[in-house]
Amino acid sequence: MELKPLPIGIQEFEKIVTEGRLYVDKTEYIYRLITGGVVYFLSRPRRFGKSLLVSTLEAIFKGQRDLFRGLWIHGSDYDWRPYPVIRMDLSVIQADTAAGVKQALKRYVGVIARQHDVTLAEGEYNEQFADLIRALAERGPVVVLVDEYDKPIIDHLDDIEEAKRIRKVLQGFYTILKGMGEYLRFVFLTGVSKFSKVGVFSGLNHLHDITMDNRYSALLGITGAEMRAAFAGYIERLAAAEGSSRAAVLEKIAYWYDGFCFSRRCVSVYNPFSLLLLFDTLEFRSHWFETATPTFLINLIKQRRYDVRNLEHLTVDDLAFSSYDLENLRIIPLLFQAGYLTIKKYEQVSDTEGLYRLYYPNYEVERSFLRCLLGSFGPVEEGEAGGYVWELVTALREADWSRFFDILKVFFAGIPYDIQIPRERYYQTIFYLLFKLIGLHVEAEVRTNRGRIDAVVETRQGVYIFEFKMGGEAAAALEQIRERGYDERYLSTGKPVYHVGVSFSLEGRGIVDWQVEPHAPTTQDRNQGGTQ
Question: Residue range 337-357: average pLDDT?
């Protein structure tokens, strides 16, 4: 089978079509969009096809029907009338200040005006934007397409005061659209975030936010059915490279890259960037995540002292998706918007209320995000952590406790004494991240009827109940496990159950003592590590 070239790095619809590259047909969704309303907003994570969607809309509104031959919209009743189009990509604006953003917008509007042979009178950046719309409206209703609408703000999240000033500049720009209804055919704005939506689009009461609209949950991204149809030849090629069956490789692809969900009645989608790189390289890697590290989010998690173990069982209501305040950035909405969390389940709990279960979309995102977190909390660099983690697994499976704790100590060495997060939780967080990364079953802060277990690790070889003590002795940790019956719920597994007591230094010296005993302590089968 001859395979169409993959459109890697190409975001222009016309270029994809004229070069005969693979395109997943989304034009039925687009038809519904352009015939059903006028002013839209859509938020999606980076590398999710937003720019290609904007380019496709531009081609449609320019009346370039021949480009769509063979696609759904070509055979529809769409009239293909050409309209004047203003297309902007704010990712090209590089400015350090709000004044710089204002000047860049003014230059950008001037460039677009010249492209349309329009001469603008002198004026402010927003005034010239309004003049451009009016001038083009003499040729027909105007289409305005804005990609990366929020990029100037996102670039300055480490300086909230400057970000607020930039928000005010953008508000002055976008608000021009409010009074231009008579001149406009269609307006579409897209970007990564929604946290700045309220402030930036203040006054645009007719703006239709389709970010979590069930009808458009698969407008961007690639569904399983779309992947199996459009990439059939590539799937066969990947299966051959893996030495695997088609069914097995499809299961592996889904495990790595599927799982993004953007509405209550969600159609699960793949990140298109990851799929394209997978079928190009024939390697299962963190393709999407490797394009950008979420440094800002990781730093925010540490600054807010957010307990990352809460992400294990995260249930929220609608308000979690509507808190977009620059003055008080909230971690959960940001993680959702950026694509590190997604909707896994929606449950209607009453006639008026519903709850969302959030979690990592897939293995790629979970593995990579947890590695970033571990690299931020511990002294081991992200690239070295994987080797250490697998050494821990081997030691655990072989019950080589001396080796296990020697390796574990590496992750707790050099932790600063003046950390802002309470030290006991800091250590527990590192431990939790370590075992999540190796795919083991970890329950952090497991609630029982007689206390709280610090961590439980379950492997095929056994169940290991960990209790941490700050400044105390490992023996006291074991005594707490026994007295409170932490192991009772695990005895029915049929696996050996072990108690593991770990003592941490209050002076920042990491692990100073540890003891391990099987469930029946009378056997005296106890390994003890020495005090540092």
Answer: 93
Regarding whether 165 and 283 lie in a shared domain, the answer is no
Cα dihedral angle (308, 293, 169, 200), rounded to 10 degrees?
A: -50
CB-CB neighbours of 513 under 10 Å: 22
Domain housing 355 = 221-376
Residue-wise pLDDT tens digits, 145-167: 999 999 999 999 889 999 999 99
For residues 427 and 191, what is the distance between their CA atoms, to the nearest angstrom? Answer: 37
- What are 223's strand-pairing partners? 269
Dihedrals phi, psi of 82, to nearest 5 degrees? -80, 145
Q: For residues 84 and 121, state if they share a domain.
A: yes
Q: Using the 8-state DSSP alphabet, how is residue 76 labeled?
A: S
DSSP secondary structure string for all residues of 496-523: -EEEEEEEE-TTS--EEEEEEEES-GGG
Q: Taking the model in full, what pTM does it have? A: 0.89
One domain, residues 119 and 246: no
Q: What is the C-alpha to C-alpha distance for residues 237 and 484, in angstroms, rounded to an integer?
A: 55
Q: State yes or no: pLDDT of 451 exceeds 60.
A: yes
How many folded domains does the chain comprise? 3
For residue 276, pLDDT beyond 90: yes
Length of the chain: 532
Residues 6 or more apart whose CB falls under 8 angstroms from that of 352 comprise none
Q: 526 or 498: whose pLDDT is higher?
A: 498
Q: Are 49 and 221 in contact (CB under 8 A)?
A: yes
